[in-house]
Amino acid sequence: MSIALPLALTMGDPSGIGPELTLKAYAASKARDLAPFFLLADPAHLARVAAELRLDVPIEATTPQEAAQVFARALPVVPPGVAVVGVPGRPDPGDAPATILSIERAVACVAAGEARAVVTNPIAKAVLYDAGFAHPGHTEFLGELAARLFSDAPARRAVMMLWANELAVVPITIHIALAEAPRRLTRELIVETGAIVAADLAARFGIGSPRLAFAGLNPHAGENGAMGREEIEVIAPAIAELRAAGINASGPYPADTLFHAKARAAYDVALCPTHDQALIPIKTLAFDRGVNVTLGLPFVRTSPDHGTAFDIAGKGVADATSLVEALQLADRMTR
Asked: 58, 111, 34: which is closest to 297 by C-alpha?
């Protein structure tokens, strides 16, 4: 895919900090040498946010085809065709259709060869649920869009990876209750996840033989069965299957000793049975710089590693670092 194509940025929840982050990212684009991107959003709403926050950012409604040229003089905004009614800090379920359409249009732009990657601003899942959104989160919705819009792409499950220079992590089970995780953690799920991660680290990140380290589910990785048998009966056999397939997989390791500096030097990505096992260490190490990357898709998708932050929306204090990192990583991954 040509690197001359811009990146497609979704608006996220328009009442969150996404609009502010986008304006600040564009303002910093020359200093940070960002690749051209366009925002799929309501231009009038974005202009209101810019005026309220006194951000002197030129905004120009355009098309995906013209966005790269517009980027040199203004923030290119491609209207998805649905107006926004919410205001910063006060989410409105009435904006759910515009939020969803922005994501759909971004993926469609990549499928049509009008953009080379999707970067998503944060959404509020609870707001979308109130409007009938049927997916647990961004990751699962993007997987459905991939199947719908990329009919010739191999069928693979979408996998969430959180990435920073210091650490990359993958939660094997994601948006489910903690009590459900042991039941969902099957050998097949672990093998499938590991294979997808290894393939995309090689293809998207240029790592020749990715080193995958697996955390145990139980304290002390089960202590040889004394604290649980999932490591013996599920995780270790899955690791053996991955190794038999030529993937550099190791573990299971106790999760409480997997993330100090010396341990991190021994692997390229840590795969953890539960959501918080993976996300707590990276958000501790790189809260403002972490990037959410969806693996297993026929296109590149990145996102800031934080939420909508309704409590600070409209106050002008949001930090755009994670969005800038997400834009830079999407650019890197598509080169």
From this structure: 111
User: Is the distance from CB of 247 to CB of 196 less than 8 angstroms?
Assistant: no
Task: Parse the chain into domains and list their residue ranges.
Answer: 1-155+299-335, 166-285
pLDDT of residue 115: 97
Of 102, 131, 122, 111, whose CA–CA distance to 40 is shortest? 102
Q: Which residues, other chains included, contact 180 with Cβ-Cβ below 8 Å and sequence gap of 6+?
A: 173
C-alpha distance from residue 140 to each of 34, 74, 104, 145, 218 (Å):
28, 33, 13, 9, 26
CA distance 97 to 128: 9
Tell whether the torsion through CA atoms of 12, 8, 326 and 213 is positive or negative: positive
Task: Report whether 119 contacts 303 (CB < 8 A).
Answer: yes
Burial 223-258 (b: 16+ CB within 10 A, else e): eeeeebebbeebbbebbebbeeeebbbebbbbbeeb
Q: Please give the torsion angle defined by the CA atoms of residues 103, 107, 113 and 119, in that order, rounded to the nearest 10 degrees.
A: 70
Q: How many CB atoms lie within 10 A of CB 194?
A: 26
- Looking up tokens 């997400």 gives 326
Whether 166-285 and 1-155+299-335 are alike in CATH topology: the answer is yes
Q: Which parts of the chain sit beneath pLDDT 50?
A: 1-2
pTM here is: 0.90
Helix (H, G, I), strand (E, B) or coil at 250: strand
Q: Does the domain at residues 166-285 carry the CATH identifier 3.40.718.10?
A: yes
Q: How far apart are CA 282 and CA 290, in angstroms?
A: 7
Question: Which pair of structure tokens corresponds to residue 59?
Answer: 């905004």
Please give the pLDDT value at position 153. Answer: 66
In the prediction, which pLDDT does 158 show? 87
> Which CATH superfamily includes the segment(s) 1-155+299-335?
Isopropylmalate Dehydrogenase (3.40.718.10)
Residue 278: its H or E element: helix 275-285
Question: Cα(284)–Cα(306) distance, rounded to whole angstroms?
Answer: 12
